[in-house]
Amino acid sequence: MKETFKTLVGTSRKTSKRMRVHQGWWRTFVLGEEEGESSKDNPACNVMKNGEGSKVNFLTKNIRQVVRETLESRDKYDSGIMNTKRLHNNLLSSQPATFNFFAEFKLDKVLAKSFLEYYIPEVTEVLDVKFEYVPKFAEIGDNSAFDVVFEFKIGDGLGLFGLEVKYIDDFSAKPSNSKLYYGQKGNKNYDNYFRIFSNSRSEFLKDYEDYVESKKFNQLFRNQLIAEKALSSGKYDYIVTGLFTPEGHKIKEAQEFQSILKRGSEKFKIITYWDMIEKLQKLDLSKEQRKWTMLLWTRYSAVELSEKIYKLY
């Protein structure tokens, strides 16, 4: 077992290392799957060899169904990025985590409404749940997209709740091999970003550069630009954005971002993995749904279960 962990764990940050070991424990002792590689000849405890075939990176058959349907419905012009190999094989990726936490809602809109009411109490109906999604009319000129979106109604009004999902990953702030931030003056998206920002200037409490030239804020700011552009289209009456993340990961940055938006606590929600699991378990769940919440807890929160393995490192 220790040999399968050696390559990557020893060089990871403490939090990343802890989660990497836990996912390696899940792969080995829960799934019984053979170890794969993060890159050529680079074995990684948190990567499976045949996830495309086994589909076991996803916790339930419902989730596997939603993943399949989502991949089948996407085309090359859609915003956002879905690397199918990483999606199926990398247990530490935030993209399979997104499906594991939210895909059940796509097949049970009543459950989705009950969950969403914790954060948007006025919601009267959930219409759909979408992944790696941005409305075509709200695209901002790059690949930015919400990791998961709830489309909902409040009475006759239409709303959208879009979340950025993290696991151990950082916020993205610069294109690959670029010294400039997304939307910084000199970046190809500057004019488009700045126009959207200017058209919704009253919703931002700081200057443009304070958002776009910040590693902490740039990605969340881009999501907010999507929201403001979608709202200005007239199709949506309500837009809420937010961050979904493990306890202690990027929370301070999200709180700071929330504080520099007008009505930030209303417009931008911060939800932790444990907060979601705890709230789900208070709902009227079926046996299979309750089992799903227990699997979420075991895989993403109960790191004490892999403590003996972690201590080897």
What would you note in describing this structure?
- The protein is an alpha/beta fold and 313 residues long.
- The chain has one domain (2-310).
- Helix content is 45%, strand content 17%.
- A five-stranded mixed beta sheet has the order 3-4-5-6-7, sandwiched between helices. The chain has a two-stranded antiparallel ribbon with strand order 1-2.
- Residues 15-301 form the PD-(D/E)XK nuclease-like domain.
- This is PD-(D/E)XK nuclease-like domain-containing protein.
- InterPro entries: PDDEXK_13.
Question: Which features characterize this protein?
Answer:
single chain; about 325 residues; alpha/beta; five-stranded mixed sheet; two-stranded antiparallel ribbon; 7 strands; globular; PDDEXK_13
Question: What's the short version?
Answer:
By secondary structure, the protein is of the alpha/beta class. Helix content is about 45%, strand content about 15%. It has a 5-stranded mixed sheet with strand order 3-4-5-6-7, with helices on both faces.
